[in-house]
Amino acid sequence: MNTLLSFTPENRPIAIAAAFTLMIILIGTAYTLTTQGTAPMLTPSYLLQQLQIGSFLGLCAAGMMMVILLGHIDLSLPWTLTAAAMMATSVGGPWAIPAGLSVGLIVGLINGFGVSYLRIPSMIFTLGVDSVLRGLMIAHTGGFAPQTEASPLMRYLAADRIMGLPVAVFVWAAVSILITVVLTRTGFGKSIYATGAKESAAYLSGIRTRWVITGAFIASSMCAASAGILLAGYSAKAYQGMGAPFLLPAIAAVVLGGTHILGGRGRYLGTLVGVILIVFLNSVLSIMQMPEAFRQIIYGIVIVGMLLVYGRENKTRL
Amino acid sequence: MTRMTSWVGRNRGFTGAFLLFAALFVGYQMMHPRGFSTAVFIQNANESVVIGFLAMAQTVPVLMRGLDLSVGAVMTLTNTIASHVVTGSPIQQIVGMTITLAAGTGFGLMNGLIVVYGRIQPIIATLATGAVAGGLALLIRPSPGGEISSDLNWALTNAVFDFTETLGFAQDGTAAWLQPIANIPMPLIIMAVFGICVWVPFKRTVTGRTIYAVGSAEGAAYMSGLPVARAKIAAFTLAGYFAACAGLYLAIQTSSGNADINQAGAYTLNSIAAVVLGGTSLLGGVGGAIASLIGAGILRVISFYFRILSIDPLMQSLIEGLVLLAAVSIGALRTLRVKNTLELFR
């Protein structure tokens, strides 16, 4: 009992976010019980469907977390995702997925080079890369929705089910396990935390911080690319602006999960909980048929409110 | 002369940005068939006001090492407010403008209070309040519209002559004393009065200086007894005010209000780009709002070129992105000069 209540500072946000997620589900259930007399939110099929939708955001947030742990940010996510999806669908066939992933690899290399070697603030460099990618894709598609279709394998990964469980959830789980292992069990993971906490100290300790930063940006872009490939598989095609709705929720999920926006602190489990929180918040709001205006307001208030509970900085300034 | 040289040395980013802007702008005017004419100046000025104000808005939090991701949304919010209240008799219109500016300033104040007393990182706090502002804007104006008088639109989006003529003073704009300034575009006057004339005096106050000090070294500023909390609140409040100026002008320019959330996001990102292009460091402490105006000017002139160069519209966003990347990479040249690698990690 004692262990349950005395959380370490790292785990407190995760516990509170998880409790809040449960509260959202309960509120949604209470709402449907009073209005329709049923509780669709508690049925397995509904929960699984939410997880399937959440897997796209989950992949984006997983990658975003790697760069946020360094105190950087990856604003090129929207068009990395879209470019990977468009390349995958236009190559098609067995090479669709490698094509999409290589887009992620290249974008990650460029981002990493700009941030770690040229020392341009990631906020502005990734923003520039995002608009270059958008320009490339507009030139590639001629500004129209691409006519190409997702390959069968992409559709299988995104929309099919194994033993009743969506395959996309397995992909998300595999990436999650991979990232957890990398962050907690490998030298690269430890280097990410060290570099994020204090880059000069990490450098003086012999960590090749430039490689670490480049590696994290590659991970971020690869995650965004896989989300794009899955999303293209889910909707059977790629389309303009498919990545835009993921950027801010991905950042919000990482931060709500207790990762510090200036880097150095955070657990992957928190990001996972943050994603689930946002997915359920969205779905409860759509069950309540909340107009877009109120959704935005509630969304903002939830982020500020949650952070007021556990995301506050220390008062000392030195 | 030595003072001049040392000023240039201390403001290398600003000087570079200014030279780039001047070269681009003069080049554009020379290539334009009706270059250096009042009509072209007015058009250019009109298209630069909104991003100019937003760049100024973004500068103030950036100077103290924060970031305000809500400036675009506050602009949208005040834009929708203005489309309701800036109407009726001239007095009512002025009251409406005051209400609009007060609303934006109040929203900025709220941002500041959340950052200072809520102790939440600015980037994430303003991300959230930006969503709130966007939602409020959608509530206020679910579909685009508004009835801002066309007289007001005409008076404020043309030359000083048209302004005085519409308002009917200075002998309908023909007074002799007015002639030297009759052809200056009104948007520039608005930028100067509501932007520069607010920023420059503010920068010289203790609060203004503290913003720079916080950006350079917050701990040192605090230990020196500077009003750190007040400066932070003031920075976000001022950002809200400038964003409201942008929203108000957008409303007058388009004679309507439109709660376009995507547009708000694009403007926020462009405001950051303008700040960086102007030579203000995202690490805080270096730069200024005037420099960001130049940065915003560079962004705008680049898009002006697309019109006269008849570049394939499909290539425009690619070129914009490449130019932005190239411009910020110029700043990266300093990494080649650094002898001690540790100096890179600030």
From TrEMBL, chain A:
GO terms for molecular function: transmembrane transporter activity. It comes from the Bacteria. The keyword Repeat does not apply. GO terms for cellular component: plasma membrane. It is found in: Cell membrane. Its main location: membrane. The chain crosses the membrane at residues 14-33, 53-75, 95-117, 162-183, 211-232, 238-256, 268-287, 293-311. The keyword Transport applies. It is a multi-pass membrane protein. Keywords: Cell inner membrane, Cell membrane, Membrane, Transmembrane, Transmembrane helix, Transport. CDD domains: TM_PBP1_transp_AraH_like. This is Ribose transport system permease protein. It comes from Yoonia maritima. The lineage of its organism: Bacteria, Pseudomonadati, Pseudomonadota, Alphaproteobacteria, Rhodobacterales.
Automatic annotation (TrEMBL), chain B:
The chain crosses the membrane at residues 94-117, 123-140, 182-202, 233-252, 264-283, 314-336. Coiled coil: none annotated. It is a multi-pass membrane protein. InterPro entries: ABC_transp_permease. It is found in: Cell membrane. GO terms for molecular function: transmembrane transporter activity. Keywords: Cell membrane, Membrane, Transmembrane, Transmembrane helix. GO terms for cellular component: plasma membrane. PANTHER family: ABC TRANSPORTER PERMEASE PROTEIN YPHD-RELATED-RELATED, RIBOSE IMPORT PERMEASE PROTEIN RBSC. It comes from the Bacteria. This is Ribose transport system permease protein.
